[in-house]
Amino acid sequence: MPVGRVIKSPECVAEGAAWLAENVPEFAFALEQTGPLPLRLRPDGFAQLLSAIMSQQVSVASAAAIWERLKEAKLTGPLKIRCASEDELRACGLSRQKIRYARALAEANINYKDLRSRPDADVIAKLTSVSGIGPWTAEVYAMFSLGRADVFAPGDLALQESARILFDLNARPSERAFREMAQDWAPWRSVAARALWAYYRVAKNREGI
C-alpha cells in the first residue's frame, strides 16, 4: 500500500488549505480568520516519541523541565534508557509509570527509518503497540514527524471544541463521530487539523476565554 501524500513545505499546507476552502464552506470561513497555516514539521525518531510520552498528563512547563533534565543527563536514546537505573530516571522527574513507558519504548526496537515508508495505518498500529503510546500520540507523530497529509487526531479536545464552534454543533463530537466527520476532509485531514487548531485559538480569543 502506498504511503500517500507527504507534507514537506508550506506550499503543501497551502495546497491542502485551498482544497479544504473550496470543498468545505466552514473551512473557507475559518481560513479567512486564521490566515496561512503553520507547517509544524518536527524530527522523527525515538527522542521525539520519548518527549511526547514525557509531556503526557503534565503541564507544558513541567514537561519541558523533565526533558531538559533528561538531555542534561544524556538520557534521550534507547540504549541510555535501557541502561539507566530507576533512581537516575526518577532524578530527572519521571514517575514510576513514565519510567515503565520509557523503557517499553526503548525495548520496542522500532525501525524509525522504515516507518517513513510505511502506510499510515501501519505506522499507527506499530506505535500504539508500545505501552504508553495511545492513538493521539501516534497520530500526531504521523502528522508532524512523518508529514502525513491525511492523518487526523479525533481524540484531541481542542480539535473537538474547534469543530463544535466552527460547524455550530450542539456539543463536542465524540471521537468516533469526529473520525467519521473527518472522512469528508480526505485527502487533507492533517491540514484540516492544522486549520481547526488555528481556528480554536481565534475563536477562544474572540470569546475572551
Q: Can you give the helix content as a percent range?
A: 55-70%
Uncertain regions spanning at least 5 consecutive residues:
none
Give the CATH class of the largest domain: Mainly Alpha
Mean pLDDT: 95
* C-alpha termini separation: 44 Å
Radius of gyration, in angstroms, nearest whole number: 18 Å
Number of helices in the DSSP assignment: 13
CATH superfamily of the largest domain: Hypothetical protein, domain 2
Oligomer: single chain
Order of helices and strands: HHHHHHHHHHHHH
CATH architecture of the largest domain: Orthogonal Bundle
Count of folded domains: 2
User: What name does CATH use for the topology of the largest domain?
Assistant: Endonuclease III, domain 1
- Structural class label: mainly alpha
What overall form do the CA principal axes indicate? globular
Query: What is the strand content?
Result: under 5%
Largest sheet: none
- Number of strand segments: 0
Which tags fit this structure?
2 domains, Endonuclease Iii, domain 2, mainly alpha, 13 helices
Tell me about this structure.
- The structure is a single chain.
- With 209 residues, this protein is mainly alpha-helical.
- The chain folds into 2 domains: 10-41 and 150-207, Endonuclease Iii, domain 2, CATH 1.10.1670.40; 46-144, Hypothetical protein, domain 2 (Endonuclease III, domain 1, Orthogonal Bundle), CATH 1.10.340.
- Helix content is 62%, strand content 0%.
- The chain has helices at 10-23, 25-34, 46-54, 60-72, 78-83, 86-91, 96-107, 112-115, 120-128, 135-144, 157-166, 175-182, 189-207.
- Helix 3 (46-54) runs antiparallel to helix 7, helix 9 (120-128) crosses helix 10 and helix 11 (157-166) crosses helix 13.
- The radius of gyration is 18 Å and the shape is globular.
